[in-house]
Structure formats: structure tokens, C-alpha cells
Write a structure and sequence with these properties.
Blueprint: E1 2-4, H1 5-11, H2 18-27, E2 31-37, E3 43-55, E4 63-68, E5 75-79, E6 89-99, E7 108-109, E8 113-115, E9 118-120, E10 123-124, H3 152-155, E11 161-166, H4 177-188, E12 202-204, E13 210-212, E14 218-227, H5 237-245, H6 253-265, E15 270-273, E16 281-285, E17 291-293, E18 299-301, E19 307-310, E20 315-318, E21 322-323, E22 335-343, H7 345-348, H8 351-354, H9 360-365, H10 374-389, E23 392-394, E24 397-400, E25 409-412, H11 413-420, H12 426-435, E26 439-442, E27 446-450, H13 461-472, H14 498-507, E28 511-512, E29 518-519, H15 521-528, E30 546-547, H16 552-563, E31 570-577, E32 580-581, E33 595-596, E34 599-606, H17 623-634, E35 640-643, E36 649-659, E37 662-670, H18 672-678, E38 685-690, H19 691-695, E39 711-720, H20 725-736, E40 742-751, E41 771-780, H21 789-807, E42 810-811
Parallel strand pairs: 12-23, 13-16, 28-31
Antiparallel strand pairs: 1-11, 2-11, 3-4, 3-6, 4-5, 6-7, 6-10, 8-9, 14-22, 14-23, 14-24, 15-22, 16-19, 17-18, 19-20, 20-21, 25-27, 26-27, 29-30, 31-34, 32-33, 34-38, 35-36, 36-37, 37-38, 39-41, 39-42, 40-41
Helix pairs in contact: 1-4, 5-6, 6-10, 12-13, 20-21
Amino acid sequence: MQFPESWLREFCNPPLDSAALAETLTMGGFEVEERRPVAPPFTRIVVGEIKEAVQHPNADRLRVCQVDVGQGALLNIVCGAPNARVGIKVPCALVGAELPPGEDGKPFLIKLGKLRGVESEGMLCSARELGLSEDHGGLLELDADAPLGADVRDVLKLDDALLTLKLTPNLAHGLSVYGVARELAALTGAPLKTPAIVPVATSFSDVLPVKVEAPDLCGRFSGRIVRGVNTKVATPAWMVERLARCGQRSVTPLVDISNYVMFEYGQPSHIFDLDKIHGGLTVRWGKAGEQLKLLNGTTITVDEKVGVIADDREVESLAGIMGGDATSVSDDTRNIYVEAAFWWPEAVQGRSRRFNFSTDAGHRYERGVDPSRTVQIIERITQLIVEICGGEAGKMDDQTLRLPEAAPVTLRVARAARVIGMPLTQAQCADALNRLGFALVEGEGTLTVTPPPHRFDLLIEEDLIEEVARLIGFNNLPTTAPLAPITARVRPEAQRSRFAVRRSIAALGYQETINFSFVEAHWEQDLAGNANPVKLLNPIASQMSVMRSSLLGSLLQVLKFNLDRKAPRVRVFELGRVFLRDDSVVTTDSTVRGVNQPMRVAGLAWGDAEASRWDGKPQRADFYDVKGDVEALLAPRVPTFEAAEHPALHPGRSARVLLDGQAIGFIGELHPRWRQKWDFTQAPVLFELDLDAVTARPVPVAQPVPKLQAVERDIAVVVAEAVSHDALMQAIRAGASASGLLRDATLFDIYRPQPLREGAVATPGALAPGEKSMAVRLTFQSDVATLTDEQVEPAVRAIVEQLGATLGGRLRG
């Protein structure tokens, strides 16, 4: 909210300079976001009157003016403004005057000179040349009663400051100059001047029939008829100036008066053209399909959740937000209806956003407007209308249906002291609340306040505590160091940090990406097989309607973004939270009932396995490249991989990742269906792991270097073609578990026989079709003595027997 400081001081004028006043408001909770002068500095610019204006003898667009500046002799000034004419008073810069700096940043000095051969003894100024506005269409015309020779800064009151307040939503009572002055009086103790609003004499008793059908929309409706107004008069310069300094341009006298009173007292109002109203008015909720053309020129369609004011034929106004074009006032308006109402905040909230615009009236009503002053506001508006536009006022019509009931709020002094963090007495708290004008009842250690009608924000004890803190002044609160013991959180040695995980993946050539947690709904169905994702009640965009349960969709979107920009090679990863439905989760400080929110790490590789090289042909990244990255990420823990299916991955090129037999994630190529849908030229390889499993790491345990020599044995086992390496190793470990001597087993060869030619006879002992030979090197070692053949051979036989029993294997002859 913006307003001139001089207007504020008309209601409350504490003995403070401008800077101190702004600081007082800020420390009282009304943050002054900006304080700037009304006009830039300039000197020797006075009020002058053009006495004569004749055509320049050598220029078609210039006039030679004789200007009276109150010095006796007239000044000869050459001027090119189109509105330079006899009889008007304008700002005149005398010789030696300094105008505000131009684009070069230097002040413009007025000197005695000649224009096209005619001497000019000064300069007549526009508003732009004085830095008052961007209007440079002509000279700035001053009031006819402006004294000749007077300093323009004094005449236009330019030694003023504009204050811009940044108000929080609970400070609706500060959305007017009088409201801010009321707070300033409470903060400083300076007297608050409340001008008496004298009722306007009524000339007739006619009232417009008004029926309020929705008490839950409108709690009070006041209005009156004013006849015989002249809407063609000009708005007084003082009102235009004040509105301009509030950031509001002048429109017409009636609109200007309504806006002026809204800035003055915070109560919006609306003025109808009485002759355009068909019958009476009805205040009600809208009906589906009804349309209304607003004052801003847009046509909207309302429904049952939007409040309207309608006449007997059509909707005429959007309740509490904006009037309609059909009953707007114009130069031909002669009879008007002035309305001020109390609209319930919850009946106005969010309605402007539905139609993609906002208004000053809606901004105030959705936060709460004092319902007790509607009649006074209409009296003030009527007073200004009669003074400026003339006319006769009718009888006041005031309907009160249902007003907010102020529930008493109790403040415990001891709790206020504890929350604010400083010693407080009951007298201090009572003084602060009394200065705000609150009606209170004192108890033993308590103060009970009945909120006044303009304070919609006073609902709980903490609201009163805030009021006490504001009145004391936030700058006066003591600085108290925390007394609670502070204990550093030491990460267990068996866990590495998320930052370390990020560094490990980055060292593998991946780049981190950060994405939104809300994603497209079809991603969840396609890539995670999640038919019931966590849905957002108010998504920021239609394509971000659900919470993700997998990071894969986000990484694919990043890949698509990069490929659209011709990226030749992409390696990205993300550490992020996913959201899974889980009825076992209860609400705590860090959880929400029914939603599990684990952290995961996911990565994606697309393109060549390595960057371009001169010494070889590049190879595309495949399953085994990314599998190696996952093993490096989890090292020194050794994961195992087993074939598995995942909705996002290729059914024959994907695997489940296990650590110590527990599944921690998936790895694999993107499914061909989704590759085609995303229009990828080749399939990316992805992995997604539980972050807790990745951050866990074994604590190193010191072990002595083996002093005894190991014994190696090579065996070649004939097994079926379907036997995997993992199955072979599990069988070997199972067979060696009894002896405890096996230290390592390494596959070093696989042999598959060539198909027999037609008519050839197989060699005795040769491999049959569908068989293969797997050669394994076994390493045995003991910590107590060098092993002998008598100790090793039984261990080898046990392994071979286990291979035969579990895999049907035999030693190759």
C-alpha cells in the first residue's frame, strides 16, 4: 500500500522526522518497504502566468510568451508546448534554476539564451521536466489561485515523502491511511485525529428496493440514492494529486471519490447509475451460466459459488470485487445509487483468482473490512459528491442481517513473557492493549480482550501476544542467547553422507539434476505401475498433478530436454524423495499419515560409454557399463543382481539389485514401448536405489596380512546351458562351508563345443548339446598352517558333490 506521508500526518502527527516515523512503523509490524520523495530536487522554479503568447517569427511550432512571475517586469520566454496560452499558470524556471537530472545524470541549468533569434529569459516546464510524471504532452497547468512567484515546491507540496507498506495478510486494518494512523498513534502515543462525519441533509425519502437473499454472502448492506449530480465537472486537483500519490490515476469524479474514501478509511464502495437499474437490487449467489460484463471490459460466467448483485433483469455487479459495465456511471449520469456493504471474507476469497484479475476492493474484503462503518462511509462519500458534483441526497437504507461475533480472547501474562522472551508485567500488557483501543477485562494474571470489529485477525492467545510485542517494539526486545544445550550430531561411522554419495556418482561421470516432486499422472502409471498415486489438491500446473513414487520419469524428462538441444551424450543422476501410500505411517514432526517418503538415488546413461577418443571407435553405453557404475557406487559392499521385471524397464535386460539378500532397487534398459513413446533414438540405461542402502557402509576391521601360502585348484564343471554364474558360485560356497578353507572362487573360462557336422561321431566324454563347461579357480588358505593335499582334496570333493546335487554338474573328463 502506498500513500503520502503528509496525508498520514493529518490523522496522526508524532514529533518524529520522516525516517524515524518509517522506522517506528516497521518496528511496529507495518514494514515500510520504501520511502522516497514525491519529487526530485530542483531550485528557482516559481508560479508564472502567461500574459501574452504570440507566434515565433522564425518557427512555426514555437511561441513567444510574456510571463508574469510576480517580479513586476514580464519575462520574455520562448516555449514550444501546444497548450501554452494566455491566462494559465504554469511552473516557470528562472535563469539560474536547476532542473532534475536528465538521462546523463547531471542537473539541467537554465541560462539566458536565444531560440531562433529570440531571447528567452527562462523556461516553462511540463510535469516530466520536473520529474513528477512521464507526461510531456504540454505544460503543467497549476490552479488558478496559485500565488504568482511562489515556489512550486510549496504550492504542489513536493517536500513530501511516499511511504510504501508491505503488509502481511493479517493486517487488513492497515489497508487505509486512517488505519495506519490509528496504529501510529498506539505506537507513539501521539493523539489520533478522527474527523467527524456529519450526516448529509436528506431532500427526499425514496429508497431503492434491495433484497439480501444470502446472509452467508452479505452481512450488512447500506445504500442511498443521490439525484441531480453533475458528472462532467473536473475532479479537484487536491484529490487527483492524492490519488496519484497513492498510485491511482484519476478517472471520473464519482469513481475518484469512491477510490479516495477507500484509501482514506479502507471501506470499498460502489456507485451505480440509478437510471440503468431495472427495478430493485438482489444480493445473492450466482446461478450457473449467468454472464456479466465487468468494468474492465471482460465478460465472465459465474456459478453458485460466486456472489453477485443483480437487478430484476440481469447481473449487475460481482459482489465485493468489481462492478458491471451495464450500470456504470458516465458523463450522462444524473442519478446514482451509492452502496457500501460487509461481505464475508470467505465469500470473496479466491474469486478474483478464478477470473484472473484482482482489485483493491477484493484485496480488502477477502481479509476483512470493518462492518460497523458502512453508514459513515456512505455519509462521507455523499458529502464529497454533493461538494464536488452537486445533487440531493435521499434517505439512508441500512440492512443488517448477520455480523461477525467477536469471541473474547484471553492472554496469560506468564505465557506472553515466555513466548516473547522478556519479563513482562500485567500492567505493561494492559497498557499495550489499551493503547490499541481494545476493550479488556483484567483477571489474576490474565487479560481478556473482546476484539473490535476492524480486527478480524484476533482469534487466539498468540494474536494478543503479537500485539503486545508490536507495541513494545521489536527493536526493544532483548537479545538472549539460547540456553538449551547444543550437541553436535555426529554421523555414525557406518554411514556416509548424502554429499559423499553425490561426489561418488559425479566422479563416475554423472551430473546432478534437481526436479519437482510433482509429476504427470501418466508417468506413475507407465513407469512405476502406480495406479493410485498421491494427488495434489491444488497443482501449480495440470501436468504436475501427482506426487512421484519413482525418480525415473524425472530423469527421462531431463534426457528429453537435453536431446532436444542436440546433446551427444547424457549422464545425469538425482537424489530425491518419493511418495508412496502406506497406511502404517502416522503423523509426526517429519511424516504425514498414510504417506511413506523415502529418499532414493537414480541415474541415467545415454549415448557413448566414453567421451570421443582418437584411438578407438566409441561404444554405446549398455547394461554392463551402468552395472559397473552401481557396483562402484556401492563399494566396498558387493551387490548381487537377479533377473526381474519392472514397468519401466526392458523385460529381458533388467535386474533387481540386492545387498545381503535384500532388494534395494532396479537397473536396466528402458522398455521399448516407452523408448518409442519418448522418441529416443536408442534406449537409455537407468538405475534407482534406496538411498539408505547406498549410504550404509561397513566399518573397516583390521586384519593381519596372511603369512601362509594359499593353495589353488582348477576345476572344469560341465553344467546345463541355463546355469548362471551366480548359481554356480552359490553352489561352490555352499559346498565349501563345512571346511571353512575356501577364500576365493573365480570363473576364468567357459567352453561350448562346436556343433557336430553331419555324419560325425561324438568323442567319448564330449559335451552333449545344451551343455557347457565352466572352469573355476579355487583358492584355499588356512590361518594356522600351510595346507596339504590331504586337507585340500576333501574340500574340493565336497564342492564337486554339491555342484552335482544342486546343478547336476560333473567334472569334465
